[in-house]
Every structure is written in C-alpha cells, then in structure tokens.
Task: structure prediction
Amino acid sequence: MIRPDLDFLNHGSFGATPRCVLEDQRRWQTLLEEDPIEFLAPERSLLPKLDLVRKTVANEIHASPQDIAFVRNATEGVNAVVRSWPLRSGDEILVTNHGYNACINAVGQAADAAGASVVTANIPFPIRDPEEVLQAIEQSLTPRTNWMLIDHVTSPTGIILPVAELIELAHSKNVRVMVDGAHAPGMLPLNLDELQPDYYTANHHKWWCGPKVSGFLFVKEDIQNEVLPSIISHGANTEGYGPSQFQSQFNWPGTFDPSPLLALPTAIDFLAGLYPTDGPNRLAGLMRHNHELAVAGRRVILEKLNLPEPAPESMLGSLATIPIPAWGNHSPDRVRAIKDTLRSKHHFELPVFRFDTANVCLRISAQAYNTLEQYERLADAVAELS
Ligand SMILES: Cc1ncc(COP(=O)(O)O)c(C=O)c1O
Result:
C-alpha cells in the first residue's frame, strides 16, 4: 500500500501490510459483523480460531502453543511481565542504553513503585563485536540484580544482541530474562525451545507484516501463573476462556478486534512465497534477501560518506543504523530539519535521531519492497546535507 511517490525506508517502526493480508483481515471483519455473538464470544467460536493462530506462531518460533499468549504489541507484553514481577525494595533490574524507551519506562515505573532500582548497562556504539555486549552486561550485574530486560534487535542501533549467551549468563547468576524481540519474528530465525528465555515478547505487525496491531508473549511454563495481563477481565474467574490460567487471563482483554491476529497466517504465507525456501525456516529466503539488502544499502551510504562500519555486518538483520559525524553537534531543531528535508525535498521516510551525546544517526530498514537504488539516492541526499 506504500505510496509510489514515497521512498519508505522505515519498515522497522510500524511495518507495512500487503494488500492480500488486509483483504484477509477485511474478510474476517465481515464474518464477525455478519454474526457478532457467534464469532466473538469466547465460549462459541473465537477460541478455536485464536488457537489456530497460536499454533502458527508456535511453529514459527519453535515454542509450545501452551506457552504463548496474545497481546496488542511488544509494549503491552513488556508491561504485563514487568508489572507482574514481585519486586522488593533494593532489587536491581538491568536494562541497556540501546533499549526501547517505552519499555524502559515500564521497568522504571515498576521499580519506583517497589523501591527497586534500574541499572543501565552501557553497550558501546559504534560496536566491534558481540563480546562487547556481553562485557557491558556482565560488568553491570551485581548480587542484587534479579531481572533483566534485553532486546533481541535494538531499536535505535539496529544490532542483534547475543541473546543466547546473555540468557545463559543471566541464568548462571539466577537472573530472570525478559527478551523484547519486537523486531525479531520475520527478521531472524527464532527457536525459543533452544533459547530458553523466561519471557519473550514480539510484534506481528513489524517483520511478519501482520495487520496493525498484534503480538505475542511467551512465558516459561513454570512461571506463567505469576504473569498477569495489563487488563484484568473475565478470564480471571470464569471457565471457558482458555485451558490454563495464563491463557484464560490473556485471551479476552474485553471486547476487541481479533482480525489482525486472524490474518497473521496469511501474512506469513505471503512472505514465505516471496523467496521460497525448503527446510524448517520457510522465511529463510526472505530473511537472507532483506539482510543482504540492508547490508548493501548501508555499504553504499558508508562508501559515499567515507565512514567506517559502526557495527559488523554479522550483527545486522534487516535494520542498519549509521551515525553521521557531520551532524554530531547539531541542535534538536537542526536534526529535525534534516529529517524534514529528507522527507519534503527527497521523499524519504526514515528515522534521523540523536542516539547519545556523540551520535546523530539515521536508520535504514530493508524489506522486500525496497531496492538498492533507493539507498543510493539516500546516500546522495545525505551527502548533500552533511
Ligand atoms: C525493541 C522494541 N521494543 C518495543 C517496541 C514497541 O513496539 P510497539 O509500539 O508495537 O509496542 C519497538 C518498536 O519499534 C521496538 O523496536
């Protein structure tokens, strides 16, 4: 649906949904409106439909369907978990300086309410290798740390964190790990059976291209009873809302539109058909294509501006963030003006933002509808503005 006169290099923020997926969503909405009670009442036909989607998600991420609940988005998934943590005064929760502001706010509020504190591990950026992530986090762990929120793919810097190693490190110190994987499904192969996070949440509407909005929350079986949704509803005390307390609580957040969830299998089927691959990961071809495009697009910009790599290619999926040294001292107004010019004069939509005191960055996304030529023109436009 992207306007043809727009160079949309920001798939990472809210995704973009293919027409056939929106048509499928519309079909579900029509079925709902034709017979609202039969369709929407959990004890009638809604739960089996949700369970089919749950199975699709479980297959893609290699997890058990019983361990998956649905949420509107990753922000809601993180909120549900951190607000359920039995925090005590003096506890420490570890986050990183590459974390997503909204989710860090949720951690901060839960910590404030309990008299706990939030410790920020400073991962360098530019970064040379994943070892620097492990070092930054290991140095920030203390005997008081009992929870950790880490991103699978960081939002501002677009790097893949070594989550398997981080989970292992955390568990060796009895620290529970929540992974914010907002960007991961559709960008990276996921195997939660192997990763063994305590909690993992992600969006369906980013790289799986599902309709806005939906996401999942995975919670390890033995701690599911601790986790409450952000919205308490009938499922808390009513039979028929799900096979376990966990699913029953999350299945019904009050009257809601399930069509984004129900159209998700169509979205994943559509993506799988773009670069068909044999083997257990049917999106492998698309993931490879998008990664190669992001890396090639970043190379074009780095070469045009004569800049070094801010992160190794092996730490990238289909996002790439590039600090632009010529913009490093710009005021917020000048940074905004650059973003506005890229949009109004050059028709590019992408984030331009200050990451820290030293770095003003741009972030590119690469999805199947993007082309290398777009990044070449972006490189010319950025060179003109720097
Ligand atoms: C790492 C990360 N977490 C959470 C979110 C929030 O996503 P949503 O607004 O869909 O909850 C984003 C969005 O870009 C993100 O990048």
The chain has a mean pLDDT of 98.
